[in-house]
Amino acid sequence: MKKRILMTALFIGLVFLLAGCVPGDGTIDPAKPAGFLWGIWHGWLAPISLIIGLFNKSIRVYEVLNTGWWYDFGFYIAIISGFGGLSLTRKKAKKEKKQ
Predict the structure, then answer these.
(1) Beta-carbon neighbour count of residue 34 at 10 Å?
(2) Burial class (CB in 10 A: 0-12, 13-18, 19+), 14
(3) 15 or 79: whose pLDDT is higher?
(4) β-pair partners for 32
(5) What is the torsion angle, in degrees rounded to the nearest 10, for the CA atoms of residue 93, residue 96, residue 98 and residue 99?
(6) What's the CA gap between 63 and 48, in Å, rounded?
């Protein structure tokens, strides 16, 4: 029971730590727009950004101040690898249950 509470507390703490760099929070300088690596980071944080954006209108899923194609490329790589990877593991688990 104590291990479950500790793991839950660590998970919640990690979510709040990661949420410190969501798109639209003011960390991107207009003189240096978000590039490829920021795109990957924002892609990984997209689900958290979506939830926070429901309560804070300045937070977006996608950074408006970006370099263009390279930011988009990093963002979509992170989205596809994160959520696409989840779907692959689900299919694998279903196949194992059938056998």
Answers:
(1) 24
(2) exposed
(3) 79
(4) 29
(5) 180
(6) 14
